[in-house]
């Protein structure tokens, strides 16, 4: 998930420039590469979140059968492979397209040709949002039912379980809040409900900011709720304080002759 978020962050300057100026400054080939990387990073981040929720549910519901490192590696290899093979056909027809208006000409980097816009938008909504949210919701319902039926856990186990569950839940909520407006906007565009105007343009800009705010929020979220990080941070501050070198004062006495 970290690698996917980092890849998304690398694309932010180009995306914000395109959103602010309504122009694509690079070539048609660059447009194809950009659209594929954008879709791939989104898919990898989304499916990694699904994998984390599945792993969390498996660990809590089967405490005596912990996940091995090989299983975890296999899960994330499958996540990245699935992200690649889903993103490639959705972006294979990405192209640079110019639109002339009475005032000026605009150049856009579109994810596909106009004839396939609706199919691509609908596929993205289903594959990148609807299905992942169903998977995450299923894992949380499964986890909630298990915790409701399970015997009383120790205070330490309950605290760790609650912290991990809150972390994944907040990550899912953040994903939902940041990406749902963008999908709503795209559906409005391809259903013919969108029209150029100050309100719609502002909504478009807000959707773009929210989508690229998501990979910025994720690292902060995991760091703040990570018990291991908090312990390491406390140890680091303690070590720095203990090893701090105190200034030494040297007095030099000279005998007058």
Automatic annotation (TrEMBL):
Key words, A-Z: G-protein coupled receptor, Membrane, Receptor, Signal, Transducer, Transmembrane, Transmembrane helix
Family annotation (PROSITE patterns): G_PROTEIN_RECEP_F1_2
Can you tell which superkingdom this protein's organism belongs to?
Eukaryota
Q: Where are the transmembrane segments?
A: 33-55, 67-88, 126-145, 166-183, 203-225
The lineage, from the top, is: Eukaryota, Metazoa, Chordata, Craniata, Vertebrata
Q: Where is the G-protein coupled receptors family 1 profile domain?
A: 1-222
User: One cellular component GO annotation, for this chain's record?
Assistant: plasma membrane
Q: State the organism named in the record.
A: Takifugu rubripes (Japanese pufferfish)
Q: Does the keyword Manganese apply?
A: no
> Which membrane topology describes this protein?
Multi-pass membrane protein
Name of the encoding gene: LOC105416958
Q: Spell out the SUPFAM superfamilies in the cross-references.
A: Family A G protein-coupled receptor-like (SSF81321)
Against CDD domains, the record matches this protein to:
7tm_classA_rhodopsin-like
UniProt-recorded Gene Ontology molecular function terms: neuropeptide receptor activity
**Span of the signal peptide:** 1-21
Which subcellular locations apply to this protein? Membrane
> What protein is this chain from?
G-protein coupled receptors family 1 profile domain-containing protein
Q: What is its main location?
A: membrane
């Amino acid at each position: 998930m970290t690698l996917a978020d980092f890849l998304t962050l690398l694309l932010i300057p180009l995306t914000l420039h395109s959103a602010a100026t309504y122009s694509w400054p690079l070539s048609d080939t660059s447009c194809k590469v950009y659209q594929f990387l954008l879709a791939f990073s989104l898919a990898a981040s989304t499916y990694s979140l699904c994998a984390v929720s599945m792993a969390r549910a498996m660990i809590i519901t089967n405490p005596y059968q912990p996940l091995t490192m090989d299983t975890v590696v296999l899960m994330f290899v499958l996540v990245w492979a699935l992200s690649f093979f889903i993103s490639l056909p959705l972006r294979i027809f990405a192209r640079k397209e110019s639109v002339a208006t009475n005032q000026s000409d605009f150049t856009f980097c579109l994810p596909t040709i106009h004839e396939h816009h609706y199919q691509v938008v609908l596929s993205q909504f289903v594959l990148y949002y609807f299905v992942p949210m169903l998977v995450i919701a299923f894992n949380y319902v499964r986890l909630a039912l298990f915790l409701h039926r399970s015997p009383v856990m120790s205070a330490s186990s309950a605290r760790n379980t609650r912290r991990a569950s809150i972390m994944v839940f907040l990550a899912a909520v953040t994903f939902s809040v940041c990406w749902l407006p963008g999908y709503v906007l795209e559906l409005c565009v391809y259903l013919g409900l969108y029209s150029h105007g100050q309100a719609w343009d502002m909504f478009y800009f807000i959707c773009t900011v929210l989508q690229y705010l998501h990979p910025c929020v994720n690292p902060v979220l995991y760091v703040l709720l990570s018990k291991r990080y908090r312990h390491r941070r406390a140890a680091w501050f303690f070590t720095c304080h203990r090893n701090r070198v105190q200034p030494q004062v040297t007095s030099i006495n000279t005998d007058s002759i």
